[in-house]
Structure formats: C-alpha cells, structure tokens
Specification:
With about 375 residues, the chain is mostly helical. The protein is built from 13 helices and 3 strands; from the N terminus they run ααααβββααααααααα. The protein is globular, with a radius of gyration of 22 Å. The N terminus is likely disordered.
Length: about 375
C-alpha cells in the first residue's frame, strides 16, 4: 500500500525584493527630506523638524496603503474602473470650481480640506491606468479598428488633459499622453495607428509649448541655462552645481550647500540634486539601483501575469513610476526642461508617497496571484 503525501506550497505573502527597494527609498527619503528642508523649515515655521515629522507621518500612512492594497484582489479594480475615473475627474474639476483649490507657485494644483491638502493628479494617474487596462482588455477583439481601439482612449486622455492645462500643468499632460500611448502599444493597438496619430498632434503640442511665455523661457533656458543665471536658468545651474560639488563620495549628509536658500524646492522637485551633492556619485548610483529593482520587479510581475487586465495594470504602474523617475532626474541633470515633478518615494509630499506606495501594493497583489498560479 502506497501513501501519497501532498505538500501545500504557499505563495510568498510579499515580494521581498520589491518591498526592500521601496522601504529603503522611503527611509532614505525621510533622511534626505530632513537634510534638504531643515534650514527652510527653521526659517519659515520655527522648527527644523517641520517637514521631517510630516514626511515620517506620510510614510506611515503610505505603508498602511501598501499593506491594504496588497490584500485587495486586483480583479476588484475592474468593477471600480468607472467610479474611480469619475472620482479622479471630479477632483480635477473641483480644483477650479469648488472654491477648495489651493494655488502655490503660480499653479492651481491642490485641493484643501481643512488642514489637509492633496494633488488630484496623483489619483488621476492611477485612475487612468486602471481604465486603460480595463478598456484594452475588454476591447481585445476590436483593437485593430481605429475608431474602437484608438479613438476612445484618446478622448478620455483629452478629458483629463483639459483641467490639467487649466492649472496649468503641461508636464502632467505630457506624462499622461506618454502613459496612454505606451499602454495602448502594450495592449495591442496597431503601431500604425499610434504613429499616424502623432503627426497631427505635433502642431498642437508645439502650440501648447509656445502659448505661454514661461514655457518659452523654460525651453530657451534649457538650451543654455548659463545665459539666464538669475532667471529661468537659475534652478538648473544650482542643481548642476550641486552634482558637481558632490563628486564621487559627496559632501556628507547635512553638509550640502545648495539647499541653503540657493536651490529652490530642495526637498521636493530637486531632492535628487541634494542627494547628488551630499551622497555623491556612488549614492546616486545606489538610488538608481533601487529604482532599477522596482522597475525590474514590476516588469517581471507584468510578464508573468496570466490575466490580461492584471498584466496591463502592472505594466501601467511600472511605466508611470519609470516615467516620473526619468523626468525628475532628467530635469535635475539639465537633460530636460524644468518641470515641477516629485521623485517617487524620496521627495516630500503626502499625496505622491501615498499613491505610489498604494500602487506598489497593487503590484504585489498581482505578483502574489502569479505565484499562487505557478505553485498550483
């Protein structure tokens, strides 16, 4: 008589490599936010710990969001697609017409509810990813048709772009456009449709770039910032000076110079420059390696997913994080025109940190589903 023993293999609860990279970046972010903002916080709020305390609190809520989203089955987002889309669009519109909009730095991008403020564009990014995944999966049989596989997605993009341009937030429109195009390509929309539609959009993009004087100045200063050291080239020049000062090993944490009221927004948009100055080339390389792990795990999860909707959500989240990292670093290094955009997991900001960590939780849930299928 032969007895057969069945051993149940449990899929890992969390993607350890992805979790390590994210939490390491968040930890570095807390330290660097304090280093970059202590002088500014002391002058403006009377306490050098002001931004540190808030970032630590944001990180705690971000970890909670990651854990919650890790345990919500990703297929639930299918039924949440249109409510999430409506919520995101409503928040974007509310910035302008609810009286709750908050203006800072010449842009109306925040909503204020009592002591709380947040940026609806972060919610809109996730909503757009979920919608694109849902729509591309649902229309698989008709993606080859221009009017069914391409046009509806561009219309939704245009609906989101309108309130963003009113803020104005041209940079987010560019990111949303790139995200939609990349997801359509991954979802199976014919490349000829994607390419042919870009041709008539180029004049529109050119018009938007030159329609505002500050955008023209940014483009001109991007080509040669040293001609405008006290104007539009000021941020890039001091960012490059920070990287140059850092050298290979950096000046040391807390010993940076450019953050001392020279580099604007050192704890948000230009925290990468502060990292370059204080941690040097090797510190920057380590940060890049951590982002590389996140993108590698995200792409791996997408490639291994047997559910087309889950694959597209994972690919969309990975693409969005990759675009944001590339653009922020490109701006800090003078490779792209100036754009107010945070560096995921590192920059100060509750909305960005909360939503990005929630997205990592969604990635982990998709990955855990893949692991269960492979063990079954």
């Amino acid at each position: 008589m032969t007895r057969t023993t069945t051993v149940a293999v449990q899929a890992p609860s969390y993607d350890v490599q992805l979790l390590f990279a994210v939490l390491f970046l968040v930890g570095i972010g807390i330290v660097m936010v304090y280093s970059a903002s202590s002088a500014l916080a002391l002058k403006k709020y009377g306490s050098d710990f002001y931004f540190l305390k808030k970032q630590a609190l944001f990180s705690l809520f971000g970890i909670m969001a990651l854990v919650i989203c890790r345990h919500i089955p990703f297929r639930c987002y299918r039924v949440m697609t249109y409510p999430l889309l409506a919520l995101a669009l409503g928040l974007l519109v509310a910035v302008h017409f609810s009286g709750l909009g908050l203006e800072a730095g010449g842009s109306l991008r925040w909503l204020r509810f009592g002591p709380l403020t947040f940026q609806p564009v972060e919610v809109a990014r996730l909503a757009l990813i979920v919608f694109m995944a849902y729509s591309l999966n649902k229309k698989q049989a008709v993606l080859g048709k221009f009017t069914l596989g391409f046009v509806p997605h561009v219309i939704v993009l245009a609906v989101f772009a309108a309130p963003l341009l009113m803020q104005p937030d041209f940079g987010s429109v560019v990111i949303f456009g790139a995200l939609v195009w990349i997801m359509m390509f991954m979802g199976g929309v014919p490349f000829r449709h994607l390419l042919s539609a870009l041709i008539p959009m180029l004049p529109l993009a050119y018009f938007l770039m030159v329609s505002e004087a500050y955008r023209i100045k940014r483009l001109i200063s991007f080509l040669d910032p040293w001609q405008y050291p006290a104007g539009e080239g000021y941020q890039i020049i001091h960012s490059l000076m920070a990287f140059g000062t850092g050298g290979l090993w950096g000046a040391g944490i807390g010993k940076g110079y450019q953050k001392l009221f020279y580099l604007p927004e050192p704890h948000t948009d230009f925290i990468f420059a502060v990292i370059g100055e204080e941690l040097g080339f090797w510190g920057v390389l380590f940060i890049l390696a951590l982002y590389g792990v996140i993108l590698w795990r995200g792409i791996r999860i997408a490639c291994r997913c047997n559910d087309n909707f889950g694959m597209l959500v994972a690919a969309g989240i990975s693409t969005a994080i990759g675009l944001q990292v590339s653009i922020n670093m490109g701006v800090s290094l003078g490779l792209l025109p100036t754009k107010g955009l945070t560096l995921p997991f590192l920059s100060y900001g509750g909305t960005s940190l909360l939503l990005n960590m929630a997205c990592v939780g969604i990635l982990m849930n998709i990955g855990a589903g893949n692991a269960k299928q492979s063990h079954s």
